[in-house]
Cytochrome b5 reductase 4
Amino acid sequence: VPLKQGRSLMDWIRLTKSGKDLTGLKGRLIEVTEEELKKHNKKDDCWICIRGFIYNVSPYMEYHPGGEDELMKAAGSDGTDLFDQVHRWVNYESMLKECLVGRMAVKPAVPKDYHEEKKVLNGMLPKSQVPDALAKEGPVSPSYDWFQTDSLVTIVIYTKQKDVNLDSVIVDHQYDSFRAETIIKDYSYLIHIELSHAIQEDFSVRVVANVGKIEIVLKKKENTSWECLGHPLENHNSLIPKKDTGLYYRRCQLISKEDATHDTKLFCLMLPPSTHLQVPIGQHVYLKLTIAGTEIVKPYTPVSASLLSEFKEPVIPNNKYIYFLIKIYPAGLFTPELDHLQIGDFVSVSNPEGNFKISQFQELEDLFLLAAGTGFTPMVKILNYALTNISSLRKVKLMFFNKTEDDIIWRSQLEKLAFKDKRFDVEFVLSKPTSEWNGKRGHISLDLLSEFLKRSSDKSKVLICICGPMPFTEQGMRMLHDLNFSKDEIHGFTA
Ligand code: FAD
Ligand code: NAP
């Protein structure tokens, strides 16, 4: 039938991606009895069952190419036969994904071999194994559920939090272990399972932020029906303070290595296809290498590929590359070894850590960055993010401390960025300059800071980030307190 303007398939796809709650259930999935299904038989409240799954198709009515009347034929009932007669080739699971209400209630079957607390067909929301005391102190425990089609298995995590995004979940499928760690404040909620059947290497992760739902869509290797998701492994379905969880690693391949200065290199590592990991702004990871038979671990802060080309950081789900700016210390333990790696070699990369919170940018007007040497690394993503996403921002100033001009990382990029974006300014301070240097000299000091840290207005909201050698950072933070900046206005990278 002719559809109204603004009701094309593309419009429908846009609507489904808008994050709007199309079921009216705020992302919850429920079990639906036959009696309940029958009640939803009107145009503005129309549920239909297809292959055991219930969809609220009211929002889809005006977009249905066959017209509303055709859709209404199955209102409040099982429309599988009708659907199959007309368009069984249509990928309704993905088209109507956001309209999914839940499943038809069937009698729960008793799991045979598995301990997993789940009804085989329709067990919604298994009870979490969170100890009561912990649940009282920490955030509300998330829960999970799963469902399947012929070719896909979808694991849904209900975080019960609003501020989740693609950084909040880290997924790995290695050997026999499937692991999805969701970070909620200072806690980690883990799905940890030996899957009952084989899956393909790649999978997708989606977040419905406004309802706090995370969906991990796995592709089955064989189109068979799974009776259960699998065996629970250690700490499965539990919420644990992050500090009590171990570091989890995956092997990443070295893709490229380029000089950034005479002693600092830009390393590009590729995540395995079976990993979803995005390092949040201001956080670091641990790199692990076996050096002389011993596993050595050091922290490094991922950066963007450059300050300019990725000025607007692409929001690619499952972004596969991680970049690092790493200074090679000839007498160091880890960095010479890293430098000797050949393209194609592997390095283990941990889950992210760190306490920088993106909420610190809220309504920010003045951002001041104080960096020394490779202490510049956390500033890269902070700069990119702030200039791109914070509309209240009036000015961003970087004071970058180095020994000599040759040590300044990405100097020309910083200068180009300052030219391109009038809100951004950079000042270089050198402790061991040549006689030709016309710029600022010396170390971090009260004089330098008081001249540099000028608010754009008396009451402007300010954030000052500081990172470098530990004594530099600690000294700088003391000076900032002396200059009457409050704790909330200072973020020291002191990890
Ligand atoms: P080390 O073996 O630690 O030696 C470093 C230097 O110190 C060498 O010159 C060595 O000769 C000297 N040295 C070692 N021990 C002594 C001693 N007892 N007395 C005197 N001198 C000594 N670095 C980056 O390049 N990029 C980053 O993105 C980055 N991010 C970081 C994030 C965090 C949270 C932290 C804490 C550090 C970060 N670092 C970063 C630093 C990094 O973790 C390593 O410390 C650095 O790479 C040096 O490691 P190394 O094993 O090669 O050198
Ligand atoms: P560097 O080249 O040795 O020093 C950079 C500048 O800082 C130089 O001008 C240096 O002056 C000055 N400086 C050093 N110590 C100082 C101090 N105590 N007080 C005042 N100024 C000081 O630096 P780098 O080798 O790149 O080292 C960077 C450091 O940052 C490493 O220690 C690394 O661990 C740390 N880092 C931390 C994080 C994090 O997130 N926590 C991230 C990245 C890097 P001089 O000429 O006098 O030496």
